[in-house]
Amino acid sequence: MTAVLPHYKQGAASYQVSTLIFGGQLVEPTTQTAGTTDLTVKPAVAGSKFCLGVAGKDGNVLAAQTGAANTYGQPQIDISLLDDFVSVYYGGIDIWAWYSAGTFDQVVGRCTHPGGVAAGQLTQQIGGLGAASFFLGRIRFF
Hints:
The protein has strands at residues 13-17, 26-29, 40-43, 53-55, 85-89, 93-100, 109-111, 134-141. By secondary structure, it is mainly beta. A five-stranded mixed β-barrel has the order 1-3-2-4-5. A three-stranded antiparallel beta sheet has the order 6-8-7, with no helix packed on it. The model has no long low-confidence stretch (mean pLDDT 78).
């Protein structure tokens, strides 16, 4: 059954991405409608109550293969290393994450970065996303 993704109790969950995701970003389901068959994830929006965990690596939607012939008459294919699945870590793990301050009822982890949150504050965007109000550091994800 190659269409079934294995899920191990103590490991990360594998999710397909619906947009570009950088490793360390908090992710949420693309669709929050009950009974949906859309099981893809996207970066969690500010104040999200649907956060699934922390993306363990970068991922992006794969472009459709056009099949256009190259110089040798063979179809061109995408052999990039960035695939469209990410490992999502959750529950009792200590991981590098890219996050911003939230409200008390939306706490998903505790900062374990040496020097605290102030030591991990960013001074610029990452990949054109975020702001200087974001932090890059270790968190203990609940």
